[in-house]
Amino acid sequence: QVQLVESGGGLVQPGGSLRLSCAASSSIFRLYTMGWYRQAPDKQRELVASITSARNTNYADSVKDRFTISRDNAKNTVYLQMNSLKPEDTAVYYCNTIRLSWGWGQGTQVTVSS
To answer: Which of 54, 56, 86, 113 is least crowded, fewest Cβ atoms below 10 Å from its Cβ?
Structure first.
């Protein structure tokens, strides 16, 4: 079973930026379309961005033009650069494959507040 470890969250003011990282424990990571998901309190987990092995990307409308997903297959890591953060981006952020092939990591908390 591939392990996923998310990091990079924190408290940021509206308009600020954060860069999240998610490291996978296996090099088979490079074969998978990866996604960043988030779950806000009392809401369902949602997919916000995805990137294929060929680095084609897709974004939820709510984050388009503000978030950028990228990957480094040599490091088995996927990133999420988040700019122009809004209070409604507050959530725990997770990564996983698009098919939810692996178990969830612990996530990383992002709080956007003044």
So the answer is: 54
Looking at 1-114, list the stretches that DSSP marks H as alpha helix, in order from N- to C-terminal side. Answer: none
3-state SS class at 5: strand
CB contact at 8 A, 81 and 93: no
92, β-bridge pairs: 39, 109
Distance CA 110, CA 50 (A): 18
Q: Give the tens place of pLDDT for each residue, 76-95.
A: 999 999 999 999 999 999 99
| Amino acid 1: pLDDT | 87
The token pair at 85 is 């953060």
